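Action item from last meeting closed. Structure (82 res):
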């Protein structure tokens, strides 16, 4: 059965400044079931999104401005339109 959410599998904090002058970034790895892309989920719940990418059929990552709003085990719902 498909779950309409993505699971946070890991969180990595980096302290180097971003190109926009922000003070670091956080990479958040996600895993999901079903035919989705990473942009199908409410990524803004994780913080100020800098970048994201779908890596495989069921995994992807998001970079947000440090420190981000996620911890391993959190779930991110699908957008209403997905």
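Sequence:
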């Amino acid at each position: 059965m498909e779950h309409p959410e993505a699971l946070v599998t890991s969180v990595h904090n980096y302290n180097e400044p971003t190109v926009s002058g922000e003070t670091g970034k956080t990479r958040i790895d996600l895993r999901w079931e079903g035919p989705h892309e990473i942009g199908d989920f409410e990524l803004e719940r994780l913080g100020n999104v800098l970048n994201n990418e779908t890596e495989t059929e069921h995994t992807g990552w998001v970079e947000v401005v440090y420190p981000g709003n996620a911890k391993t085990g959190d779930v991110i719902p699908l957008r209403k339109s997905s």
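Note appended to the action item: The chain has no helices and five strands.
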